[in-house]
Amino acid sequence: MSRIEAARAILAANDRGGYTVPTDRLYPFQWNWDSAFVAMGWATFDLDRAWREVERLLEGQWDDGLIPQIVFHAPSEDYFPGPEVWGVPRRTPPTSGIPQPPVLATAARFVLERHGEAGAERARAIYPRLVLNHLWWQRARDPDGTGLVATLHPWETGMDNSPAWDDALERVPTETRTEIRRRDTGHVDAAFRPRGIEYQRFIHLVDLFREAGWDATRMLQLSPFKVADVGTNAILLRAERDLLALAERFGTSQEREAIAKRISRKETVIAGLWDEPLGHYLTRDLIGGSLIPVRTSAGFLPLFAGLQDHAAELAERLDAWQRRGVSLVPSTDPDAESFEPQRYWRGPVWAVVNWMIACGLRETGHAVTADTVASETRRLIGDAGFSEYFNPIDRAGIGGETFSWTAAIDLLLGEEKRR
Ligand code: DGY
Questions:
Q1: Mutate to test the pocket of ligand 1, among 95, 160, 188, 353 (most ligand atoms within 8 A of CB)
Q2: Omega of the bond prior to 94 within 30 degrees of 0, cis?
Q3: Which of 106, 78, 86 is nearest to 21 (CA)?
Q4: Nearest protein Cα to ligand 1, atom 4
Q5: How far apart are CA 355 and CA 374, in angstroms?
Q6: pLDDT confidence tier of residue 133, bands split at 50, 70 and 90
Q7: How many Å lie between the centroid of ligand 1 and the Cα of residue 244?
Q8: Burial class, 403, CB count within 10 angstroms (exposed 0-12 / middle 13-18 / buried 19+)
Q9: Which residue is closest in CA terms to ligand 1's atom 7?
Q10: In the predicted model, is pLDDT for residue 418 greater than 90?
Q11: Which of 98, 101, 365, 377 has the fewest beta carbons under 10 Å from its own?
Q12: Catalytic residue IDs
C-alpha cells in the first residue's frame, strides 16, 4: 500500500458514518478541532465527505453558537468522561459543554477553495453557523470586548496538560463530585498521558460548570481557571480572517464590518502577548494578570494568525532546536524544566500544530524553516507511523495509533511536497 493509500485507509477505518473518530477506542466520538483538520484531509480526495465531516460536527452546535469539543453521536464505554458526566440538558446528539480551538472556519474555506463553484451551496449553508460560533466566542468569552477570549478549562485548548497551565491549575481544587474512572490509561501507557492530579482538576471544573447549568456568564464568573491562551486566540484570529473571506461571498456588509473590526482589535492584543525576555508569545493568566513564562508550541501560532513582527526570531528558535537534533516542533521548550518528551502536551511533537506553524512560517516569509518543519513532520510519520504524537528526542511514535488527524496532515503535506 502506498503512503497516500495508507493515510486514506486510516480516515476510512475511523469513519463512523459521516464523522471521523480521532482513533478507535481511545477517542470514540467526534472531536471538534480534530474534525476540522480531518475535513481538510478528506478534501484531498473526497470533497463530499469533507463537507459531511463539518456538517456532522455542526449537528452538535448549541443554539447560542457554541460548537462543543465533543459530539457523542453514538454511545461508547471506552471513554471517560461520557455524556452523563457532562450532564448537558436536552441535547441530541449529546455533547460536552466546552469549546475547542476554532479551526472550523479555516477548514470550511479550505474545502470550498478545493471544491470551487460546486461547493458553494454547502458553504453557503454552513456560513451562518460559523458566524454564530464566532459571535459565541465574543459574547461568552470576551464580553468586555478586550479582543482576547478566555479559556476556562485546559481541555478547551486541546493542549490539556501543557506546563503553561501548571500554576493556573493550582487554583483548582482536586476534590470531585464525580467518580474518576479513566479509560485512557487502559488504552495507552499512563506515562504518555496526563497525571492523576490533573484529571482531578479537569473533572472538578466539569463538576463546577455542570452545576452552573453550563451558563456561559456564570462559568466565566465562577471558573478558578481563566487564561487568555495564545494558541486559541491565534487560531481564532486566523479563523476570523477565513470567515471574512467566506463573508465576501456569502455575508452582509454589516457582517464583514464586524469581522474586520474584530480582526484589527485581535491583531493589536495578540501582539501584546509577546514577551521580550523570553522572546516568545505567551499565554496570559487572567486571574493573576501576568504572562505565563513557559515557551510552548502554541507560542508560534501567532504566525498562523498572520502576525509578522517576530517571525524571524521564532524561525531562528526552530532552526536552533533542529540543529541540536530536537525533532520539530516540541510542544514545550526542550530546555524548560517542565519538558517531558513523551508525556502528551509536555514535550511531544503534534503533526497538526506543525502544519499550522509551517503555514504561518511560509505566509510570513520563512519558507526554508517552513519546509524544515513540514519535511520533519513527514519524516516522523514516515519512520514511526500515523501516531497521535511523537517523542522529539528519540523520534518514537507515541499515544494512540492510526490517528485520523496525523493521517490528514500527512495527506496535506504530501500534496504540498508534490506541488
Ligand atoms: C482527552 O480526553 O484526552 C481529550 O484531550 C479531551 O478533549
A1: 160
A2: no
A3: 78
A4: 155
A5: 7
A6: very high
A7: 30
A8: buried
A9: 155
A10: no
A11: 365
A12: 160, 388
Report the distance separating Cα 261 and Cα 259, nearest Å: 5
Counting Cα atoms < 13 Å in the Cβ hemisphere of 228 gives 24
Measured CA to CA, the distance from residue 219 to residue 66 in angstroms comes to 14
Type of residue numbered 360:
G
Ligand 1 neighbour 388 (Cβ under 6 A): no
- In this predicted model, what pLDDT tens digit does every residue of 311-370 receive, in sequence order? 999 999 999 999 999 999 999 999 999 999 999 999 999 999 999 999 999 999 999 999
* Ligand 1: centre distance to CA 18 (Å): 21
Read off the pLDDT of residues 42-83 as tens digits, 9 standing for 90 and up: 999 999 999 999 999 999 999 999 999 999 999 999 999 999
DSSP 57-76: HHTT--TTS---SEE--S--
Decide whether any atom of ligand 1 lies within 6 Å of the 285 Cβ. Answer: no
User: 69 CB less than 6 Å from ligand 1?
Assistant: yes
Nearest to 74 by CA among 10, 125, 24: 24
Distance 331 CA to ligand 1 centre (A): 16
Mean pLDDT of 77-98: 96
Which residue has the CA at smallest separation from atom 6 of ligand 1? Answer: 155
160 lines ligand 1 (CB under 6 A): yes
Report whether residue 33 contacts ligand 1, using a CB cutoff of 6 Å.
no
First to last CA, the chain: 22
Which cell goes with 179? Answer: 467518580
Mean pLDDT of 393-399: 98
pLDDT in the model for residue 90: 84
**Beta carbons of 203 and 87 less than 8 angstroms apart:** no
Report which of 235, 66, 201, 212 is spatially closest to residue 141, judged by C-alpha positions: 66
Q: How far is the CA of 240 from the centre of ligand 1 (A)?
A: 25
- Burial class of residue 238 (count of CB atoms within 10 Å of its CB; 0-12, 13-18, 19+): buried
